[in-house]
Amino acid sequence: MTNFEAYVAQYARDLSKFCIKLCGNIDDADDLFQDTWTRALAHFDAYNPALSFKTWLFTICVNLYRNTGKRKYNTTRREFSSTEEKERFLNTVAAEAEDIDERLDLYRALDTLPKKYRLVLTLYYLRAFTGREIAGMLGIPEGTVSSRLHHAKKLLKRRLQDESYDR
Question: What pLDDT score does 141 carry?
Fold first, then answer.
């Protein structure tokens, strides 16, 4: 097994979950997932093994999403087409909330956030990257990451509170 194949085996699941969280649906997430691995393979000779492969890979994914997201990903915002698709999605997300409806509310609220906030929240809380790693991925100062996290949490809290009154 080559180094690249070992990395695919090690990080495919994490990358798949991340793509689903970014895109909000399986179809676009599959496209982003494939595009990320294709780009990583094409530039694998430029990868510096002294650095974290996971950070390098997720940086590629984030850049693809940011640079082509408006044109390519997130094009098919829709409800789940089947119970099976809904279950596949729920199996990929962290099971912090015991109630499935609460998890769906969280992800729906997260999906309504502007991309810059959704990205930092997803990278920080759902993928466990540090502020410094996120700053490197996004090409922004670490203080900006902290600021975006702060604003994103406030927005998310407000959206979740507003949604609870709608029921």
Answer: 94
